[in-house]
Amino acid sequence: MPKTGGSIRVRTNDTSLWATARRHGPAIAVFLVATLCVVAFLTEHPVRETAGDEPTYFRLAVASEPLDPSLPTLLPGNMPLYWWPPLTFALYGMMVTPADLAPSAPRLPHDRHGMELATPESFVRRVSLANAVGMLVSGLLIYLIALQLGLSPPAATVALAATTLNPRLLFYVQTLWPEWLHAVVLLSAMALLVRFARDEGVAWLALASALLGVAALIKGVTPGFMVVLIPALLVLCRGNDRLRLVSIAAAAVVPFALVTGPQLLRNHHEHGAFVLSTNTWINVEAGILPPPQARNPELESVFDLYRRSAADPITRERLSRERVVEHLTEASPLGTLKRIARNYWFSIRHSFFGGSVAGDRWEGSQGLTWMVPLVPVLSALLFVVGIAGIVLSWRSHRAHVVLALFLVYYVLALGIVGFNPRFFVQAAPLLGIMAAFALDQAGSALRSKVRDTSSR
Q1: 103 in any annotated domain
Q2: What distance in Å separates the CA atoms of residue 437 and residue 432, rounded to the nearest whole number?
Q3: How far, rounded to the nearest angstrom, does the alpha carbon of residue 214 sit from its chain's CA centroid?
Q4: Is the separation of the CB atoms in 285 and 302 below 8 Å?
Q5: Please, are residues 419 and 287 in contact by the beta-carbon 8 Å criterion?
Q6: Which pLDDT belongs to residue 114?
Q7: Residue 6 lies in a domain
Q8: What is the pLDDT, as a whole number, of residue 367?
Q9: Which of 96, 108, 209, 309 is 20 to 30 A from 258, alpha carbon to alpha carbon?
């Protein structure tokens, strides 16, 4: 199969331990600093008020009993249907201890509702430790992907730093939201997809597809990319019909047969619908439809209206889908695009980091106030330079195209459901790679220009 576009640079230097340490020294230093920052972060800022739906994550973790007690809780097809994709709660349920349920357990207040929704501090600390490991592993995966794409070690270190030294992303280590769990699974799949694009090994694609299936059980944004990936393989595998057919079969069959399929079939058996969760369309509705208060200040929020529209979650989803379709057929396309643009601005500018620090809802966070204005600036810079990298990548090797394809899909999804700034967490590490790629390309062009000038 011919390569499309440019080529990935392969550097074959001295492989001795000292040479390896010198070549990757900056990355090693960044990773060590990031590890120290995580330890300091969890030690110095241990207590914060929970926000949004975090307490619900604990309640569902406690109630996350397998449908068949004789089978493992994490087995696809053995998890109950939740508002969110179910794997997070199955995993969190295994992390709950009797001490968390004791009446005397110290609990965290909620940012709006007080102690009646309080979550055990010990449980949050336990999840935070898992999130910290996930963030550091994600940084290593980002560095590995960047090197596989042919970026220089200094440029790959920029991508590593954008992930592990980013205060906005570091904040989500100490939350119950599954952003880092989803990110580490997603980035593992991306690393395997890049390997497939380089080596044409269908086994890498099959493993990546299985991991995408796992990611789909954590957050509902993943299945859309699985649908996009299959036709993309028709282009990526151009010139090799046999590889194309085998690849499409691997991408389509493996995740359904091993991961999502059993859960879909079980949900259909239990609830009469082939769904992984019951909050897909409400996320779209909240992202692109004007809020009910825009028409009538006395109306409830879109989520309150959603919950009260029907007792059955499947029916609520159907009604939400109908509202979205009706809006898209009747609303002005320009008005919808303007709302999506506002979603981008909101997702980049806002974060729970700034709200927790500025709102004084985070014990010991006063020393972090200087970061509050810095976070949106860094996010905007990462977004803009990352988009530039995506544009440049389309003319490069198809391994870059695989990564750019996911980012284009995810960035579009971020605009559609951009009401929640935490969805930026999964995009930021990959935007870091694309930003580093853009900087690497700019550096190479500058060096070539200098050489040309000096040789005249």
Answers
A1: yes
A2: 8
A3: 13
A4: yes
A5: yes
A6: 67
A7: no
A8: 82
A9: 96
DSSP 112: T
Instruction: Label residue 291 left, alpha or beta by phi (over 0 means left) and psi (-120 to 50 means alpha).
Output: beta
Query: Does the residue 10 lie in any domain?
Result: no
**Residue 169 is encoded by which pair of tokens?**
């992303």
Kindly list the distances between the CA atom of residue 262 and the CA atoms of 60, 71, 269, 318, in Å, as whole numbers in the listed order: 21, 13, 10, 22
When computed from its CA atoms, the radius of gyration of the chain, rounded to whole angstroms, is: 23
Domain that holds residue 30: 17-455
pLDDT given for residue 444 in this prediction: 83
Q: Is 311 helix (H, G, I), strand (E, B) or coil?
A: coil
Query: Could you tell me the CA-to-CA distances from 118 to 7, 218, 361 in Å, in that order?
Result: 54, 24, 14
Tokens representing 79?
A: 């998890």
Q: Which two tokens stand for residue 329?
A: 């057929």
Query: Would residue 257 count as lying in a domain?
Result: yes
| Cβ atoms 396, 6 nearer than 8 A | yes
Q: Could you tell me which residues come within 8 angstroms of residue 8 by beta carbon, excluding any fewer than 6 positions away?
A: 148, 149, 150, 198, 397, 399
Split the chain (456 residues) into runs of 10 and give each run's mean pLDDT: 46 64 90 95 85 90 91 92 90 94 89 76 94 97 95 94 94 94 96 89 91 94 89 76 82 90 93 90 86 70 85 91 89 85 85 84 83 91 93 84 91 81 90 94 82 74
Instruction: Count the domains in the chain.
Output: 1
pLDDT of 414 reads: 84
Instruction: Work out the end-to-end distance of the chain between its first and last CA atoms, rounded to an integer number of angstroms.
Output: 40
> Is residue 197 within 8 Å of residue 397, measured between CB atoms?
yes
